[in-house]
Design goal:
Layout lengths: L4 H13 L3 H14 L4 H13 L3 H14 L4 H13 L3 H14 L4 H13 L3 H14 L4 H17 L1
Helix pairs in contact: 1-2, 1-3, 2-3, 3-4, 3-5, 4-5, 5-6, 5-7, 6-7, 7-8, 7-9, 8-9
């Protein structure tokens, strides 16, 4: 009996969780051979390619997923994360802004945008993003850590 694409995707998630990225990639590719429009497998494949530092392939994969589901803010956030890791903060911010145009309450988009802004030198705007993310979700650990680091840095500059 052949596995369903969702089963391949889940198997890929297990490999991904164990840091076995090449094995995860094989599972996502198998799921996508069966169903090339399987958004979650495309998203997961893009994330594993990012972990493997295959950034151009990751961007192509996210673009493919976005072409199928333009209103999926998670895809835009993950594409932005690829650009962020490439130190292309301008492109990352554009992706995070697009995600926020779809879902203004997307904590990941806000927190990641804050990091990209801060790293690009716009410290005050980065702080605004971290604070807004924490207003939406006070338990957002990443936003809190980044906000506190940025606040300590700004205080140290005074």
């Amino acid at each position: 009996m052949t596995k369903h694409p969702g089963e391949w995707n889940n198997e890929g998630l297990a490999f991904f969780g164990n840091g076995q990225y090449k094995e995860a990639l094989k599972c996502y590719d198998t799921a996508l051979e069966i169903d090339p429009k399987f958004i979650q497998a495309l998203n997961n494949k893009g994330n594993v390619l990012r972990m493997l530092k295959e950034y151009e392939k990751a961007i192509i994969t996210f673009d493919n997923a976005i072409s199928l589901d333009k209103e999926n803010s998670e895809l835009w956030v993950n594409k932005g994360a690829v650009y962020y890791e490439m130190d292309d903060y301008v492109s990352a911010i554009k992706c995070f802004d697009h995600a926020l145009s779809i879902n203004p309450e997307d904590n990941n988009a806000l927190s990641n945008k804050g990091a990209a802004l801060a790293n690009s030198g716009d410290l005050e705007s980065g702080m605004v993003c971290f604070n807004k993310a924490l207003e939406i979700n006070p338990l957002d650990v990443n936003a809190r850590i980044n906000r506190d680091k940025l606040r300590d840095f700004l205080v140290g500059r005074e």
